[in-house]
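task queued by scheduler; priority normal; single chain, no ligands, no partner chains; default sampling; output format set to structure tokens
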Amino acid sequence: MDDDGVGSEQAQRLRRLLKAAGIEVGTLWLHSFRLGGEVGEVEIDAYLHHALGMPRLERDLLACAANELIDHGADGHAPYSWELLEDDRKETADGEGGADGDGGPGGTA
């Protein structure tokens, strides 16, 4: 899975999670800003609706912000890029797709 595919999957899962948890985009933006995020509320909303790409660092920061805002019960958690890349690598090992070979917690955007 390339970085665009990871970003798209992260956006889809994050949007679904926010809806299930009843978290507004403005709340996510404010919390991500407090954590050091540099994108605005409008950009986050556009990203969640697949109208704008976002660098891996900002996507993972949004996942972190969402995960801090939700109760980790039934709603699960927002995936980090390295988790999706790891899942993709596992599927590749089983013969179900391709991985691009970068990423992980120490990976670069």
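post-processing summary
- Helices lie at 3-21, 25-34, 41-48, 56-69, 81-93.
- Residues 10 and 91 are 17 Å apart (CA to CA).
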